[in-house]
Each structure stands twice: as C-alpha cells, then as structure tokens.
C-alpha cells in the first residue's frame, strides 16, 4: 500500500494544516460579513438585496477573486462544494427545522391545498419541464438529452426555495393562508423533488426492466417508506420522553442530547434503508414538535428551540456562501447557451402549469368563500425560486450522468439559481405590493380555519361546504375534510397517548403565541429573519 508523502514530510503536513486554517478563517469571515450585512439590509428595509442574495453575492465575489488570483490549491480545496457534505451535514438541520417550526393549525387548515401543490404540482412541473426540454432537443432548439435525463433535470429543477418571498412576507405582513400555502409547499416540495430525482436516476440505471407503473411504485415506495420511518422515529421519541422521566433539572443535559440525536437517527435510518433521509427527517421534525416537544421540561424546550434555530441559521447562510463560491470556482459548459435560455422559459411554463392547474383543482373542492384568489396564485407562481437543493442535485448529476450531459445540466441549473435568487428575489417586494397581497395583518386571529384574514373572505375550515352536483367536486371536498378528521383524531387519541397533555394542548399553546409569531409563522426557523 502506498503511503502519502505528506506523512513523511513534516513541512508539507504543516503547510496543509496552515492552508486548512486559512480556508476555515475565510469561511468564518464570510459568515460574519453575511450576518452583519443582512442585519443592515433588514434594518434599512432594503428589499432589493435580500440576505440570501447578499450571501450568494459574497460567495461569488470571493470565489471570483480566488479564481483569478494565485490562491494556493490547498486553500481553494476547502471551498469546493461537496454534495456529500451538503446532504449529510448542512441540509438535515435545515429540513428538520422546516418541520419543527411548523404551526399545525394553519398547515392542516390548508392541508389539502398544500399536498396538491407540493405533491401533484411538483410531479406535474417535473414532467412538463422534462417533456419540453426533450422536445426542444428533438426540434434542435437546444442541446439534446435522452428522455430519462430530461426527466431527471425536470425533477431537480422543480425543487423550490422561496426564502426571499417568505422573509418579505414576514417584514411586510401577509395573508396567513397565502403564507401557509407558500410555506407548506416549500416544506414538502424539497422532499418530493429529491424522491423524484432518485427514482428517475434509478430508472436510468435499470431502464431495460422498468415500465411506467414500476416507476410509480418505486416512487411511492421511497416516499411513503421514508415518511413512515420519520413518523415512526418521531412517535418513538415521544413515548421515550413521556415515560423515561427525564423532565427533571438534573437530567436536562441528557434530555437535550437525546432530543438532538433523534433527527439524525431518523435521517441515517432512512439512508441506510435506501430511502430518502430528507423526507424522513422532515416528518420527524413535524412529529417531534407536535408530540415530543411537549414532553420536555421548560428549560429543555427553550434550549432545543434555540439550538435548532441556531444551527439551521448557520447552515442556511453557509449554504448560500458555499454555493456562490463554488459557482465561481467550478468549470461550466457555457457552449450550450440555448439550453439555458430555453430551460428558463420551460421552467416558467411548468411552474404556471403547476400553480394554476392545481389552483383550479383546489378551488373546485372549496366553497366560494374559501377559493384561492388569482392574486394569491400569481404570488405562489412567482415565489418558485430555485436554491441550494436544485444546485446540490445538479452537482450530483455531474457524477450520475455522462460527462457532457451532467455538465450541461449543472451549468443551466447554476444560471437559473443565480438568476432567480438575485434578480427575481430582489424584485419580490415590488411584485407582492403590486399584487396587493402584503400589508398589516398583525391583528389576525388564528382560529381553527382563519376566520378573519385582513377582513377578507376566509372563514372557518369547519364551515359547511356549498352543495355541488359534481361527484368529482364531492370527492375533492371529502379529501379536504380529512384535515378536520385528522384534527379530531389527534385531539382525542394521538395527543393523549403520545404526550402527557390532554387534547386541549394545541389550543392552549396556540393561544399563547404572540401576534408577532402568528403572522407569518416561520418556514424554516432560521429563515425568520432571512432574505
């Protein structure tokens, strides 16, 4: 076995350690600069450069300077975007905080619409994008890719990350139902997109023995299996903390340590079973916040909330810096400009098919006073920015696909991410004000179904549906009523069984939420103050 020369070279080893120290120091400096700049931008209400955009710009500038300078290779290697590092260390706390920061009443009151947009809508957007990209290649409008690879591209580029829109919602105030839709779709959208990508990747590697039915079965197996693993781990943690008697002062450290370990256990369990760790840890976060969290002592509750908020905030900011630096450092295939331009056009079309098509279906199932207005649908369409998930999957495609194909997809994704985060993100505030979907909504009360929202049309979720002669509409409405049925099931059986509280726990907790936290509730706890 050959031994690295650095082991026998003390000077070389010392030089590597010095390079590592310099690289980490630069990363910390960029983090500090990003947080300070973000605070200044928020303080002066400068919405044209959101904090996420500022972090990405910082990474782009530093990466560009390092690329044109004579920076040592050993230092530059510390800034390479490794998809394994992203998926194993940066993404899990962000996704867990998505589920952990979820407020159940707004989410479940719009549960049918959220599932429609995030599951059916993401599937539609992926297929539409893939088909249009394939047809564009057949018609010689753009670089031609095999059909399955077009579907892989459609899957990864359908992962949205509307951090800018949500942060501006918080700054300007918004309709809680609109915020719930944007928030809920973004929470489940990442999980759906990564499941679709992995399914298409598996189909590509075993194309000879797969048909469309087996593709659907494989996707459902991955998604439902991952969700079941996450929910199972969450319920297990709830029972452990309920009966282990850890909620005493001298066991607080043990209580917090166990609570922090369960999310990663869920993630690694799913990955070990060849499922999706992202889907698993998301549902673990939802279940642990709803059941396990209430079994903790008061001090432990405050600690774990602050802890996950902290690490997810650091991870989210670092991801945008990390991404910007790597975009400037990576080699890109700019020879297929047509592929990039037409991809942007096709993504806009696919997003429209997603939002407006699913919006039509949701409105079929809702009575007149609860229909999603066109202005909200336009805001939802505009909020489909692409971010770190799409970038990481595109970087993974470089290894999954042939050299030229993967590089083309990666370059196109990079251009789309930069365009949406910097340009569309900076114009979000103006767009939301033009649509008149933001404003002072601090006095809104969070009832069971958002009885009043900015003096608008929304009423209780439990209101009776208007009669309809359509059997299809009736079935859709029955699906939406499942949210109310689940609320009753949760109040009467799940909450008493998994927590030490009775069924009135959620009402007591939500009544204590300050109105600053009510509108809007955070998408990802670390994004409360992000752009």
Automatic annotation (TrEMBL):
One Pfam assignment: Na_H_Exchanger
Membrane topology qualifier: Multi-pass membrane protein
Cellular component GO terms, alphabetical: endosome; plasma membrane
Domain of life: Eukaryota
A Gene Ontology BP annotation from the UniProt entry: regulation of intracellular pH
Catalytic activity: K(+)(in) + H(+)(out) = K(+)(out) + H(+)(in); Na(+)(in) + H(+)(out) = Na(+)(out) + H(+)(in)
GO molecular function per UniProt: potassium:proton antiporter activity; sodium:proton antiporter activity
Domain Cation/H+ exchanger transmembrane: from-to ranges: 35-433
Signal peptide: none
Keyword Hydrolase: no
UniProt-annotated location(s): Membrane
InterPro entries associated with the record: Cation/H_exchanger_CPA1 (IPR018422), Cation/H_exchanger_TM (IPR006153), NaH_exchanger (IPR004709)
Keywords, ordered alphabetically: Antiport, Ion transport, Membrane, Potassium, Potassium transport, Sodium, Sodium transport, Transmembrane, Transmembrane helix, Transport
Transmembrane segments: 20-41, 47-65, 85-102, 114-143, 219-241, 261-283, 303-325, 337-358, 379-398, 404-425
Protein family: Belongs to the monovalent cation:proton antiporter 1 (CPA1) transporter (TC 2.A.36) family.
Protein name: Sodium/hydrogen exchanger
